[in-house]
């Protein structure tokens, strides 16, 4: 809001009369003054406002019973035996000045139990005078916390469901370890402390550890020994102190991380929203009024100035405005798609046309491949010509999409938390291209989220879904009325119902797209984002700074989206950042001094020896904590990586000519894009000019053995050897002969270099198979060394050396030298299959009215049946939930 207001003030000053400019200057001063107000308001509310639910209690001799009575007034059921006092009784004066803490287990009617931290005022005699604060420190809606055990400021309990115990939680009420905050700035530590104060009643927070039992146990007993937690899980003994001291193979600790809080505005909004006397609906109303007022002012100024948005486009894109415009679609790759047809007349320069980022130093590219990204913009609102929607589009055949759960969001119903971090595996992060925001917070719908096989929130029926499949494809679709997650789905993220499906806007007739309280008819015009799958199978990210859901949908239609999803909204929560990661000292030169407004460079945290370049999608994108997704993040996000494609990097040997080592993909039986094979010829040893090595590269993502597609390659019968090459569902594999597997053997030889080898195979990065064969007829002792040197160039790690060449035929017709090959009946055929790319998911899910999908999406998340009160104690204050025996469908 402040950014847009500042832009408005600058425009008014330059174009309106002197008096209006003076007024604008005064308004600008007020806007600048207002920037820290959300932080001030939040701090004041947190520090000064008394808890809304603090109540003086009737006399009760037993303090535990008094606390149970107080909880009953708040609709919670607890047992006095489940109340554990942490602090000693205060003195006469101290009882007026400080509170005592108790940790306990309680539940609402028919709900699973949670663990609470209560702050109360006790008399010197130990009588409860007042319940000051109550904080849910487990806060899981779908599982049951049981067997609370306490010693000093250490507390532990188990999480159970379906009759089994899955994990043990351990709290340190003395506070978080100081080491958890080392990555936070001084201001961020203040923010984090105030968040702790709101969520736990103590600024130092609570130290949290979680341990997963493997296998899950039927009976678990907890106790504290000398500075250690003791666990008996079905007789398996586990001892935990600062680390697991005993029973390591039966338990694994789940890492927890503290991510950076958002900027002051976004952080303050979340803190105020969490206040029980304010809440989400009031916050939505405040934002809706503010957005409506800002929109009115912008429209007035736009009508006076005639602003068509052209200057803003230049400022937002910077030097990218000069990137080459793609005037045509490559017939071989189909990328980029046709330009977006402008909707407003006259069109701005470059509007709707795709600009390629293949020369961008911030973007990693594959050799001799199309640009992984193109970008453009379009205007969709006739009444607001100054407003644009920017689009970044990529080809999922070249770019893979992944999901990461944040360290806080989405708030899991089982207490599970994510890493909030792109994996620090060099094979992954060195291919990192970009990151962008996920969907709404869990409080706004609990929409489904799974990352790397871990379900943080189960899928909601009829939820708009983007998923990563086991073959690496990016899939988009509407989840059916079935909670089952298919085996082919590795990760997914949902948000509301689809905004666009099969070209139709809002097919499920949703009336609320965020930004206003439910029931309001006007949609807030603010920052909104989205992601879509186009008709050609490409994917695109959309970002507009002053738009509603309808105009976001129109932009998706213009980009030829067949399925579109509305993602998160509001400045600070939305945005895309490009990254390029490489070993220290090997990043490319940018060619200019970095603009700190939207460009940066630094070391990759938690991965020594690696650096990154980073740039926002737009110069003035209001994205908090830039650079955001290269660091640990509290909210979920998507990240993009560059797939390994053919051709690879050229092979190079000293003394070779420029033609040697260059890969060829043209004229080969590819039968589609990405390319399935590539060939090259190299001279590895300048002292032996007559001895060349022919090399074949094969992409396993594009072929299958004996399929129905066109033939890419044929392989003759395999010889005998200690190790074999096979092609399975996971790609090529070299293993010892006789290893488990039913796949036919394609080649056999030795996994060690042996004298007399005339050919060799190796599996390199991305699973690419490389086959090298000496071109001369007679083998020489030094040929094995030549082959090893060639495989070194391909970075192949697993290798197989052959005493005789493979009988290969490209397309089943010609050998690597281009000579015809006679057809044989005993050859293995490798045929073309569709490579991972953009896919539709659940395309048979029907369109149903809101009366069907809304009640299903409005249900709270449940993994297990609601617990029943213990037998003989139903409805009593001492009733405790029983174990839930079986799952149920939400």
Structural account:
- This protein has 890 residues and is of the alpha+beta class.
- It is built from 13 helices and 46 strands.
- Strands 15-16-17-28-27-29-25-26 form an eight-stranded antiparallel β-sheet, with helices on one face. Strands 18-33-19-30-32-31 form a six-stranded antiparallel β-sheet, with no helix packed on it.
- The two termini are 39 Å apart.
- The model is unreliable at 1-54 and 864-890 (pLDDT under 50).
Report a brief summary of the structure.
The protein is of the alpha+beta class and 890 residues long. The strands form nine sheets. It has an eight-stranded antiparallel sheet, covered by helices on one side. Strands 18-33-19-30-32-31 form a six-stranded antiparallel sheet, with no helix packed on it. Strands 21-20-24-22-23-46 form a six-stranded mixed sheet, with no helix packed on it. A hairpin with a 2-residue loop joins strand 20 and strand 21.
């Amino acid at each position: 809001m402040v950014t847009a207001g500042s832009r408005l003030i600058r425009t008014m000053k330059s174009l309106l009369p002197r008096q209006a400019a003076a007024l604008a200057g005064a308004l600008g001063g007020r806007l600048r003054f207002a920037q820290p107000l959300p932080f001030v308001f939040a701090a004041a509310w947190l520090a000064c406002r008394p808890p809304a639910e603090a109540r003086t209690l009737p006399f009760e001799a037993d303090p535990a019973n008094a606390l149970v009575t107080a909880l009953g007034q708040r609709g919670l059921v607890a047992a006095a035996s489940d109340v554990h006092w942490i602090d000693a009784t205060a003195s006469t004066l101290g009882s007026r000045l400080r509170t005592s803490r108790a940790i306990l287990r309680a539940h609402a009617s028919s709900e699973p139990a949670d663990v609470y931290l209560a702050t109360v005022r006790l008399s010197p005699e130990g009588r409860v005078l007042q319940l000051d604060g109550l904080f849910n420190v487990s806060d899981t809606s779908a599982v049951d916390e049981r067997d609370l055990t306490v010693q000093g400021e250490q507390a532990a309990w188990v999480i159970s469901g379906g009759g089994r115990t899955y994990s043990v939680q351990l709290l340190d009420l003395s506070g978080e370890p100081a080491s958890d905050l080392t990555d936070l700035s001084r201001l961020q530590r203040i923010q984090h402390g105030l968040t702790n104060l709101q969520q736990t009643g103590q600024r130092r927070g609570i130290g949290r550890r979680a341990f997963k039992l493997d296998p899950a146990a039927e009976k678990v007993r907890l106790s504290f020994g000398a500075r250690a937690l003791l666990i008996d899980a079905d007789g398996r003994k586990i001892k935990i102190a600062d680390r697991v001291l005993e029973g390591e193979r039966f338990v694994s600790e789940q890492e927890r991380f503290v991510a950076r809080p958002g900027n002051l505005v976004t952080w303050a909004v979340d803190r105020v929203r969490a206040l029980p006397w304010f809440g989400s609906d009031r916050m939505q109303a405040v934002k809706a009024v503010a957005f409506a007022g800002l929109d009115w002012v912008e429209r007035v100024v736009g009508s006076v100035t005639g602003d068509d948005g052209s200057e803003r486009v230049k400022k937002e894109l910077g030097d990218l405005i000069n990137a080459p415009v793609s005037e045509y679609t490559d017939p071989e790759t189909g990328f980029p798609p046709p330009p977006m047809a402008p909707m407003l007349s006259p069109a701005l320069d470059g509007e709707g046309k795709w600009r390629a980022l293949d020369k961008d130093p911030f973007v990693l590219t594959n050799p001799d491949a199309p640009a992984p990204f193109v970008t453009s913009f379009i205007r969709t609102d006739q009444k607001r010509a100054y407003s644009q929607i920017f689009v970044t589009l990529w080809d999922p055949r070249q770019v893979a999409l992944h999901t990461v759960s944040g360290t806080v969001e989405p708030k899991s119903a089982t207490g599970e938390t994510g890493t909030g971090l792109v994996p620090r595996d060099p094979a992954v992060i060195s291919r990192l291209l970009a990151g962008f925001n996920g969907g709404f917070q869990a409080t706004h719908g609990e929409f489904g989220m799974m990352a790397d096989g871990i379900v943080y929130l189960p899928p909601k029926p009829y939820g708009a879904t983007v998923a990563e499949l086991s073959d690496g494809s990016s899939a988009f679709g509407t989840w059916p009325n079935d909670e089952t997650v298919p085996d082919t789905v590795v990760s997914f993220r949902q948000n509301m119902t689809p905004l666009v499906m099969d070209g139709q806007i809002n097919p499920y007739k949703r009336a609320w797209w965020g930004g206003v309280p439910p029931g309001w008819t006007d949609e807030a015009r603010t920052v909104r984002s989205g992601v879509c799958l186009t008709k050609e199978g490409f994917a695109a990210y959309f970002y507009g700074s002053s738009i509603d859901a309808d105009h976001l949908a129109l932009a998706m239609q213009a980009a030829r989206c067949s399925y579109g999803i509305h993602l998160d909204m509001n400045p600070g929560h939305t945005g895309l950042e490009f990254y390029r990661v490489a070993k220290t000292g090997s990043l490319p030169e940018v060619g200019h001094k970095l603009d700190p407004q939207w460009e940066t460079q630094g070391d990759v945290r938690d991965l020594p020896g690696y650096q990154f370049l980073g740039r926002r999608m737009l110069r003035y994108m209001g994205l908090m904590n830039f650079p955001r997704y290269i660091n640990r993040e509290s909210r979920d996000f998507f990240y993009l990586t560059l797939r390994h494609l053919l051709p690879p990097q050229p092979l190079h040997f000293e003394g070779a000519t420029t033609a040697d080592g260059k890969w060829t993909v043209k004229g080969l039986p590819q039968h589609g894009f990405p390319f399935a094979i590539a060939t090259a010829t190299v001279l590895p040893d300048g002292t032996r000019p007559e001895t060349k090595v022919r090399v074949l590269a094969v992409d396993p993502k594009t072929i299958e053995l004996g399929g129905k597609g066109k033939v890419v390659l044929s392989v003759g019968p395999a010889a005998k050897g200690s190790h074999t090459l096979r092609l399975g569902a996971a790609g090529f594999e070299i293993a010892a002969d006789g290893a488990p597997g039913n796949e036919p053997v394609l080649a056999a030889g030795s996994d060690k270099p042996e004298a007399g080898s005339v050919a060799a195979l190796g599996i390199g990065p991305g699973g690419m198979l490389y086959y090298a064969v000496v071109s001369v007829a007679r083998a020489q002792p030094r040929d094995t060394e030549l082959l090893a040197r060639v495989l070194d160039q391909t970075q192949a790690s697993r290798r197989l050396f052959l005493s005789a060449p493979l009988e290969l035929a490209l397309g089943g017709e010609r050998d690597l030298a281009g000579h015809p090959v006679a057809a044989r009946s005993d050859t293995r055929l490798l045929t073309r299959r569709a490579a991972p790319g953009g896919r539709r998911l659940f395309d048979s899910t029907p369109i149903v009215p809101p009366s069907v999908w809304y009640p299903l999406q409005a249900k709270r998340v449940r993994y297990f049946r609601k617990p029943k009160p213990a037998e003989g104690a139903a409805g009593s204050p001492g009733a405790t939930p029983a174990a839930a025996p079986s799952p149920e469908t939400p």
